Amino acid sequence: MVTGDNLRTARAIALECGILGSNADAIEPNLIEGKTFRALSEAQRLEVADKISVMGRSSPYDKLLLVQALRKIGHVVAVTGDGTNDSPALYEADIGLAMGIQGTQVAKESSDIIILDDNFSSVVKVVRWGRSVYANIQKFIQFQLTVIVAALVINGVAAVSSGDVPLTAVQLLWVYLIMDTLGALALATEPPTDHLMNRLPVGRREPLITNVMWRNLLVQKSTIHGSRGLYCGSSGHNCHVSWEVNLNCKAELAIVADFFCYRVHQVHPIEETRTMLKQKRLSKG
């Protein structure tokens, strides 16, 4: 909390709101005065910026210095404000949030998000929805990669081994335009849940496709091909190597069976991708 009020008032509000846990926490550098922070060297500001919980008697320039210091040490910074004097910090922050009712026009123009009801608890909703959108994008990417890689492997192996491909262009077009569209809608429209707030924030340099997602992709792809092989083998269809089908079955039947097997086993990646966030596997990547 960065405020222009004196330290005693700022400490009382911070204790009431839970920003400071107890009176024992109300010491420097947790509780600091603006002019003290301003008088520090740049190296010293970078050292204490991460420890500051409350800054009292601060000027707009002190707020700006704090935002700059936090960004330099790698934090993603969000700033809330409503006055014209808050505009430098709002503009410098990664995310600026201005109050829609009491906020000045200058503050609104310098911010990225306007809180229409001036309710600070709305920031929690913003964070929840932001994390939900990010998680849904990750789930959609994992599902799409699973489907695409599986199709490439199936057609690639068949083309090399037999000179023919099991999935035709029309079938692939049907897969991606119809089935994947419905799957994408199911994944992209997942509503935000409270457990998202228990996850650690996403780092500035964290990749969108995490190591855990790559691992899940390999597991799902292996499951698809393994189940497909068992199905084709148990049904007497030589779905992998040649369209000359065993047991005197017609080649058309093998193609249909192969395509059906491929599509049925796309249900597993959809359900697996939908539940992976609840199991917190993405947050460990």
The count of helical stretches stands at 11
**Unreliable spans:** 234-254, 280-285
β-strand number? 5
Strand order of the largest sheet: 3-4-5
How much of the sequence is in beta strands?
A: 5-15%
Description:
With 285 residues, the chain is mainly alpha-helical. It has helices at 7-17, 34-39, 42-48, 60-72, 87-92, 105-110, 122-162, 169-188, 211-235, 251-264, 267-276; strands at residues 31-33, 54-56, 78-81, 95-99, 113-115. The strands form two sheets. It has a three-stranded parallel β-sheet. Strands 1-2 form a two-stranded parallel sheet. Helix 7 (122-162) runs antiparallel to helix 8, helix 7 crosses helix 9 and helix 9 runs antiparallel to helix 10. The radius of gyration is 28 Å and the shape is elongated.
